[in-house]
Design goal:
Radius of gyration of chain A: 17 Å
Largest sheet of chain A: 6 strands, mixed
Structural class of chain A: alpha/beta
Strand order of the largest sheet of chain B: 1-2
Strand content of chain A: 25-35%
Order of helices and strands of chain B: HHHHEEHHHHHHH
CATH superfamily of the largest domain in chain A: P-loop containing nucleotide triphosphate hydrolases
Oligomer: heterodimer
Helix content of chain B: over 70%
Distance between the termini of chain A: 39 Å
Helix content of chain A: 40-55%
Shape of chain B: globular
Shape of chain A: globular
CATH architecture of the largest domain in chain A: 3-Layer(aba) Sandwich
Number of helices of chain B: 11
Number of strands of chain B: 2
Strand content of chain B: under 5%
Largest sheet of chain B: 2 strands, antiparallel
Number of domains of chain B: 1
CATH topology of the largest domain in chain A: Rossmann fold
Distance between the termini of chain B: 35 Å
Number of helices of chain A: 11
Structural class of chain B: mainly alpha
Order of helices and strands of chain A: EEEHEEHEHHHHHEHEHEEHH
């Protein structure tokens, strides 16, 4: 579905990503893990088009998306849930969802999609006329995912879902992501600092350090590998 | 005193029309378009020439004004303002002001070159006619048209911003540009259309200025001053408060003229402006 081939990205004259290659397979959950400042958000922004690559290719189902503007990439079926939620706080839940279905294709079927989304997130149906800014943190995170689903994406990019959420709320959100992946067969590419929880949910994982991919593997195996235990789980040998 | 209120409302409706485009563009795009006054002046001249050359009623010339100013807005945004969009907010405001000042200078001088600096007015047959209500209360016919026009503009803008996908895209990108972009909104095109719409609004205000007052090449800056006072009084980017502040300013000026004569009319607005800056800007 999604393929990155030797992607370099510079921001403000500084190279942030170094020859990153990875694949997110259709219908699977692929995770990108790494500490703060490793370049995870930059990588997602490069896929969604918010940040330009300096070299390398990004392809979606074989079609290059590297040079397209952001709104075209959305039309091609990529939807991103940005870090820090980025809702439209002064608009209602309903309006936020409508904006999620902004592309021409999604707009036509937006009423059906909204019914579908409300079935996954019943709490949003109860709050549809409330301002998005007045929702609780967990509800806001649900709304960002719901808003992204409104565009009927083929590929969902999730950036730091656990941001600002309690462990319980995080667990709920992750459970929902797993459900969406199962019920809709949606391809998901998730970026997280929360390594253990993410690897329990994901199928495959990559580890990003200082802008380079330093490890990859099937999620279960990564979870028990010494490299991950050492660096991220704090349970390796010192 | 009732007469003062009537005139205050009419003047206020005009002030609201003058300010609304400036305020919306500032609120959504963070461009403080100083050339808004010059666009208003062009709108006034279009109405003037339409009336004098083709005897088109000024209020009926509004559709023509809207189209011409919209096209001009597209050109100005594509040629100048869109290049500022990638700047951080503070720099964007400063630079848009610089660009706007330069534009004002160019447009106003071109207008002098083409049309001379004569003061002109659009005077259809109903200019000066009034409707008598009760004893002594006179309502000018033009005033009724201006208030009606203002109401129509408020209503249309409200519909556009709350009911259409374009309007929702405008409000969304105002709150979070990148997030709006990630929804599939073509931010550049949305901004372009919105800027052009604001130019059209300036043109509509220009028609009213030409009918109710007069129009000459540097008239824009005078009305821009009012528009900026209202921007400060009303806060940014909301339709209702802009017209409320316009009427408040119109009334305040009317009352001051009633008590002290016209000499201090301009001072009132500036004093209000200062008071707001001192007491509310925190």
């Amino acid at each position: 579905m999604l393929e990155l081939n030797r992607v370099d990205v510079h921001r403000g004259g500084i190279q942030v990503l170094w020859s990153v290659s990875l694949t997110a397979k259709e219908g699977r959950i692929t995770a990108l893990l790494g500490s703060n400042g490793a370049g995870k958000t930059t990588l997602l922004s490069a896929i969604s088009g918010l940040v330009r690559t300096s070299s390398g290719t990004i392809t979606l189902k074989g079609n290059p998306i590297g040079s397209q503007p952001v709104h075209k990439i959305v039309e091609m079926g990529v939807s991103m849930v940005p870090e820090g939620r980025r809702l439209f706080p002064e608009m209602t839940v309903h309006e936020n969802l409508e904006l999620g279905a902004f592309t021409r294709k999604a707009r036509a079927g937006r009423h059906e999609t909204m019914e579908l989304v409300f079935r996954t997130f019943p709490v949003l149906a109860d709050r549809r006329l409330q301002m998005a800014g007045t929702l609780s943190g967990g509800e806001q995170q649900m709304l960002t995912i719901a808003r992204s689903l409104m565009s009927r994406p083929n590929l969902l990019l999730l950036d730091e879902l656990s941001w600002g959420l309690s462990p319980v709320a995080t667990e709920n959100i992750f459970k929902t992501v797993k459900e969406i992946n199962g019920s809709m067969g949606l391809t998901i590419f998730i970026v997280e600092q929360n390594v253990a929880t993410t690897l329990e949910m994901a199928d495959y994982g990559y580890i990003l350090e200082n802008g380079r991919i330093v490890g990859e593997g099937v999620a279960r195996e990564l979870l028990s590998s010494e490299q991950v235990k050492d660096a991220y789980l704090g349970i390796g040998d010192v | 005193m009732a007469q003062v209120i009537v005139y205050g409302i009419i003047t206020g409706a005009f002030y609201g029309l003058t300010s609304i485009g400036l305020s919306l563009v500032f609120g959504v795009m963070r461009h403080l378009n100083i050339a808004h006054g010059s666009l208003l002046m062009i709108g006034g001249f279009v109405a003037y020439w339409a009336f004098h050359l083709f005897s088109i009623d000024p209020f009926l010339s509004i559709p023509i004004v809207i189209v011409i100013l919209f096209a001009l807005g597209v050109a100005l945004y594509k040629g100048l303002f869109c290049h500022l969009d990638s700047l951080p907010e503070g720099q964007k405001i400063n630079n848009s002001m610089l660009v706007g000042f330069g534009l004002t200078w160019i447009i106003d001088n071109l207008a002098i070159l083409f049309w001379t600096s004569d003061v002109r007015a659009v005077t259809p047959a109903y200019t000066g006619s009034v409707i008598q209500v009760m004893d002594g209360l006179r309502i000018p016919v033009v005033g009724i048209a201006i208030v009606g026009l203002a109401l129509l503009v408020i209503f249309s803008l409200h519909l556009i911003l709350t009911k259409t996908f374009f309007g929702k895209a405008v409000r969304a990108t105002a709150q979070d540009r990148d997030a709006g972009n990630l929804m599939g909104i073509n931010v550049e095109r949305t901004y372009l259309t919105f800027f052009a719409l604001s130019a059209s609004l300036a043109g509509i205000a220009g028609v009213v200025a030409a009918v109710n007052y007069s129009v000459h090449p540097t008239v824009g800056f005078e009305w821009l001053l009012k528009a900026i006072i209202i921007l400060v009084l009303a806060g940014v980017g909301k339709i209702g408060p802009v017209f409320a502040a316009g009427i408040a300013l119109g009334m305040a000026e009317g009352v001051s003229v009633y008590f002290t004569g016209p000499a201090y009319r301009e001072v009132v607005g500036l004093v209000l402006f200062l008071l707001v800056l001192v007491y509310r800007a925190k």
